[in-house]
Amino acid sequence: MTQKKTLGEFIIDNQNQFKYSTGELSCLLNAIRLASKAVNHEVNKAGLVDIIGATDPNI
Question: 47 vs 5, 9, 15, CA distance in Å?
Answer without folding.
Answer: 29, 30, 37
